[in-house]
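Appendix B, example 12.
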Amino acid sequence: MLATWIGQALAAPTWGELPVDYYMYADFTENPGNQCYVHSYHNCAACLSKCNNNPLPGTAFWMPDEAFTDGKSCAGAGSPQYCGQNGVEQIYAAFSGKGALDLWNAVEHAFRNGAHTEKTVFDILLR
């Protein structure tokens, strides 16, 4: 998600007015529920709940057995324990009006300084 946003922001001046459309789905077939983690805690928890309460049929995707959580296809099996406090909503607010380089530098700085990956990148960027 961040790579798409930064890349589009860098290329947009050569295209003129061409906004980026980025869709997030609770039932993303390549990795059900995984996109829920780009939301802030409350929205992430709601997204995971939706994914687990209305799962895709097994014929909609293929994943190895190790990819399932407690036998469920949705990431985290509905538990919001891996949801961050901050999400794309807060990142957008914090970096709105700034350049792509500002966001890129913040991402690089966070990970060069030993960011802990048990947190979401959004929590790391806004600490």
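DSSP finds five helices and no strands in the chain. The first helix runs from residue 2 to 15.
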